[in-house]
Design a protein that fits this description.
It is a single chain. The chain has 2 domains: about 210 residues, Alpha-Beta Complex (Lambda Exonuclease, Chain A), CATH 3.90.320; about 70 residues, no CATH class. It contains 12 helices and 15 strands. The protein is globular.
Length: about 290
């Protein structure tokens, strides 16, 4: 991958981004790569020398890497932190490094994220976080670490938190850090998920047949309809179908009300359009883009 510096940031920042200490050597695939769609992983591997990313787009990731300094200052003598573990699944060695495992069995991963992402995860869950922590739980179990994992949690550090918004809204986080519980799968669920993912990545690597990322992996947003009122910035309600819009308007007695309009919001594959570093090498994205 080639790094650019279009914002002319200090060389020290460029060096910090370039000198990423992450190392999964000794394994065929890391937890991070295992939960990544096989198509994205293989397109990254096959096109590494052509991928270009700007340093400015890596700043939040750089900040996130600083969490290990927080852990070092926070852990007690009884806690376990930042240990890389290995296991062999279907002839592949997988690896993963957890952030913190307390003596009470709390497996905690630190994330620097947005308020919106954290609130969405609390309401709807976040598949990648759940998958990551359950793989790490599995690795702790099969490696017989000294503490049995009893719970999985994300400590979300909210990079865009606003004290003013916290005072103004009852739904806004009251602190800049929040704890988000993550569902702990059964042993069977963990083992089956890991085996399935390993097989998918193995098949993609051996045959170069790259499965289309699932709607969930593409962070797909469906079409929706916003009921707007003149003079109001936010929608009265956002609904997935016109039928539900009509039912809502009937319920609220605003079918023929003046100043009420319905705006169609086209859905999109958010990851494909905005967050995939290899979309220009992806035939699925090329077809998707041609429709717009």
């Amino acid at each position: 991958m080639k790094l650019t510096n279009s914002s002319n940031l200090p060389q020290a920042i460029v060096n910090a981004v370039a000198n990423d200490p992450y190392d999964s050597s000794g394994s065929n695939i890391s937890t991070t790569m295992l939960i990544k769609p096989p198509r994205i992983r293989m397109l990254q591997k096959l096109n590494d020398e052509y991928i270009v990313e700007d340093v400015s787009d890596k700043i939040f990731a750089l900040i996130g890497q600083n969490t290990h300094h927080i852990i070092e200052r926070a852990k007690t003598a009884d806690d376990m932190s930042e240990e890389r573990l290995f296991a062999t699944v279907n002839k592949w060695k997988i690896s993963g490094q957890f952030d913190l495992l307390t003596k009470n069995g709390e497996l905690i991963d630190f994330k620097v994220t947005s308020v919106w992402a954290a609130l969405d995860a609390m309401t709807n869950g976040k598949a990648e976080w759940e998958q990551q922590l359950n793989i790490l739980d599995y690795l702790c179990r099969v490696n017989n670490v000294k503490y049995k994992v009893t719970s999985l949690q994300i400590m979300a550090i909210l990079r865009d938190w606003s004290k003013l918004k916290a005072l103004q809204s009852s739904n806004y986080p009251k602190q800049q850090c929040i704890m988000i519980p993550v569902r702990q799968w059964t042993h069977k669920e963990q083992e089956q998920f890991i085996l399935d993912r390993v097989k998918q990545h193995q098949k993609a690597e051996e045959t170069l047949t790259l499965p289309i990322c699932t709607p969930l992996e593409r962070w797909k947003k469906e079409d929706s309809y916003a009921i707007m009122k003149d003079g109001r910035k936010t929608a009265l309600r956002v609904l997935p179908s016109m039928k539900q819009v009509q039912e809502y308007k009937k319920q609220k007695n605003i079918i023929n009300a003046k100043g009420i309009t319905v705006v169609e919001r086209k859905g999109e594959d958010v990851r494909c359009h905005h967050y995939c570093s290899v979309n220009r090498f992806c035939d699925f994205y090329a077809e998707l883009k041609s429709k717009f």
